[in-house]
Design brief:
Radius of gyration: 33 Å
Number of strands: 14
Shape: extended
Largest sheet: 5 strands, antiparallel
Helix content: 40-55%
Structural class: alpha+beta
Strand content: 15-25%
Strand order of the largest sheet: 4-5-6-7-8
Length: 579
């Protein structure tokens, strides 16, 4: 249609951002594809180096070995700045509800998140409010475009972020009240034309390619478009630019959200703060609803390497060796021969035959004079070279044989095994230095979403066991139950750091109790720390502490030492005199 040729300066700006972001990331596209294919046990056959469709699963073996040793989700706790402990409990309970199996499945999301960093060097999570609940979604890095002039350490320094490949039915655009319905009508008119039909077929193909990886994972119904349905591609464009109000006033730069359809029409343009909601510090003016992290940060390059990039080339080399060995073994098994074309006055024309037991096969003249076996080497010497490549890759990635559950042939002591294994695990757990800060950012983003749009959040139910009973009690809480004037701050630490810190703290408190026996406040603090270290929920901790207080108020037991109180962990009970 003629209208599509109208030049829109803002639409041209969005196209330029897409082109710039794609050119910046394009160099990584083929590497990502190879990493993924090797992980999925797929190889591309060629006439020179990979003639056989065989793969040594180094990629999957190393990545799965490393993944099991990476630390778990960091421990996150929200502290109320107004010291309202009841509201603090509700806030932390809501975080648990958001991350449970029925909503975001944080435990599974965390595995996917880390695996994407292994594969691509980067992972992205998008945060939004969907159907009354905060939703966190791991996004494919191949759908995200950013500015090449950003600071790789801070995603919010990018002048734009474009989220592409969002395919939706054309008919669904009418249901969004935020979209420009005139632009929607123009898109419907375009897709009714002959050019529109061609574009619709192209979009359907792109959607199929986008979901191909998920189909290979076994999700067969990930993309089954309704017959007769036309799909369009939407892009979310977050652009940092001047904000000019309707009264002509110019404010500081802030993020705007543009939604474009097939690079033809802008369906929506609004300040991001207006889309999500305002906060006291105008947080959403300068922050994107995405977070990202990498375990091999580069100052010059946002699209840094992943662990899979280390494994890719050795895996391809070993596949080439193994492919040649398989092919040579197959050719050796064929038993190919040269033959003398002049034998039998040129009448000898050997035919292929099926070997049979005690078979006789005639040839004119002496067989050794007529036939000669084609010698094909077995290439067994390549095994040493393959082992060298594997060992080098193990050193580069930190995935030692012991971590993989394999036994080494070299005789070493148990202490040496434990030392090597401990060093390897410490190297892998060093990744927590990169993803623990991003969980801090996620906790902050979670709080800012609640602050910006409390009216968009549905009430949730929490279930707790009552004191001194096995009955389950239900309470419905909403944002008004935990929101306070000063808000919250996020405390976070890795699981390993928490365990080490708690253990050291308990050991120090043991020494304090030995110095000040019978101090009720110190004993209560020690008991509370010990129960929290045992991962008991706060309600159970309070119930046990209350029971201990009641015990101290109870009449003394004959023969007990007055004021001794509970004994610290690891101490021996008092010795009773022998009668």
């Amino acid at each position: 249609m003629a209208e599509t040729q109208v030049t829109d300066p803002e639409l041209e700006m969005l196209k330029a951002n897409k082109e710039s972001g794609y050119n910046y990331r394009e160099r990584r596209q083929d590497q990502w594809t190879e990493n993924y294919l090797l992980y999925r046990d797929k190889v591309i056959v060629n006439r020179l180096t990979q003639r056989q469709s065989v793969n040594i699963p180094l990629m999957k073996m190393f990545l799965r070995s490393l993944l099991k040793d990476v630390d778990d989700i960091p421990v996150i706790r929200f502290e109320n700045l107004d010291n309202d402990k009841q509201k603090e409990i509700f806030q932390n309970e809501y975080w648990k509800v958001v991350g449970d199996q029925d909503h975001n499945k944080f435990s599974l999301m965390d595995i996917v998140d880390k695996r994407q960093v292994f594969h691509y060097g980067r992972s992205f999570i998008q945060w939004q409010i969907v159907n009354g609940m905060i939703k966190a979604t791991v996004q494919d890095p191949q759908d995200i475009l950013v500015s090449r002039f950003m600071d790789p350490i801070d995603l919010n320094t990018s002048r734009f972020l474009t989220h592409t490949h969002i395919f939706v039915p054309l008919s669904s655009l009418k249901n969004n009240p935020d979209y420009d319905q005139q632009a929607v009508a123009e898109m419907e008119q375009f897709y009714a034309s002959e050019m529109g039909i061609v574009k619709a077929e192209s979009n359907a193909q792109m959607m199929t390619e986008k979901n191909k990886k998920m189909e290979e994972m076994g999700v067969l119904d990930v993309a089954k478009p309704v017959l007769g349905e036309t799909y369009v591609e939407l892009s979310l464009n977050f652009v940092f630019r001047d904000h000019e109000s309707r009264k002509g006033q110019v404010f500081d730069d802030q993020f705007f959200l543009y939604v474009d359809c097939d690079d033809m029409r802008i369906l929506m343009k609004k300040p991001l703060e207006e889309v999500i909601g305002g906060t006291k510090d105008n947080w959403w003016q300068t922050h994107l609803p995405y977070d990202t992290w990498a375990d091999d940060l580069e100052k010059q390059d946002f699209w840094s390497d992943g662990v899979a990039d280390i494994i890719r080339t050795p895996n391809k080399v070993i596949n080439s060796f193994y492919s040649q060995m398989v092919e040579n073994r197959t050719l050796r098994n064929f038993g190919m021969h040269y033959f003398d074309t002049t034998a039998g006055d040129g009448t000898f024309q050997p035919q292929t035959f099926n070997p049979v037991p005690w078979g006789w096969y005639g040839v004119p003249g002496k067989p050794q004079d007529v036939l000669q076996k084609i010698e094909i080497p077995d290439l067994s010497e390549s095994l040493d070279e393959m082992n060298f490549i594997i060992e080098t890759t193990e050193k580069a990635t930190g995935a030692t044989p012991t971590q993989q559950g394999a036994q080494t042939e070299r005789q070493i002591t148990l202490g040496e095994v434990q030392l090597a294994l401990g060093e390897a695990k410490e190297r892998i757990k060093g990744m927590s230095k990169f993803y623990v800060p991003v969980w801090q950012e996620r906790g902050t983003m979670f709080l800012k979403l609640i602050e910006a749009a409390p009216n968009k959040l549905d009430a949730v139910k929490i279930y707790k066991k009552g004191r001194n009973t096995d009955d389950i009690f239900t309470k419905e809480i909403s944002s008004s139950d935990w929101m306070t004037e000063s808000g919250y701050r996020v405390r976070i630490w890795s699981q390993d750091e928490k365990d080490t810190h708690d253990t050291q703290g308990l050991q120090k408190m043991n020494a304090a109790i030995a110095t000040m026996p019978g101090n009720p406040k110190l004993l209560e603090t020690y008991q509370r720390k010990l129960l929290e270290w045992a991962d008991l929920p706060p309600d159970d901790v309070n119930e046990i502490i209350e029971f201990e207080k009641q015990k101290l108020l109870a009449p003394p037991i004959p023969g007990a030492i007055p004021g001794a109180g509970p004994q610290p962990a690891g101490s021996a009970p008092p010795v009773q005199p022998v009668m």
